[in-house]
Amino acid sequence: MTSGLRCKITITCDKARLSNVETKRMIKDEEKYNFEDDENRKKVEAKEALLFKSYI
User: Fold this and answer.
1) CA distances from 27 to 2, 30, 55 (A)
2) Three-class SS of residue 10?
3) What InterPro entries does its record include (predicted)?
4) What are phi and psi of 8, to 5 degrees?
5) φ/ψ (deg, to 5) at 41
6) What is the DSSP letter of 9?
7) DSSP code of 8?
8) Helix (H) or strand (E) run with residue 43 in it
9) Left (φ > 0), alpha (ψ -120 to 50) or beta: where does 16 sit?
């Protein structure tokens, strides 16, 4: 069972430590990994539901 916790991360360029290109790349990576996380979450939830039904 998952914890159900979600975090929101904001990427900003406050102190000019990251270039705009690096910031945009990080945002693009976040979107990609967010999609992958959602897909994995769906698989885990389906597996847990199947296991739950098999014990009843």
Assistant:
1) 25, 5, 42
2) coil
3) HSP70_peptide-bd_sf
4) -115, 125
5) -60, -40
6) -
7) -
8) helix 20-55
9) left
pTM above 0.90, yes or no: no
- List the Cα angle 30/33/36 in 5-degree steps: 150
d(Cα 47, Cα 50) in Å, to the nearest integer? 5
Q: Is 30 helix (H, G, I), strand (E, B) or coil?
A: helix
> Phi and psi (nearest 5°) for 37?
-60, -40
Tokens of 5: 């916790």
Which two tokens mark 10?
A: 């904001």
Residue given tokens 């979107």 in the structure block: 31
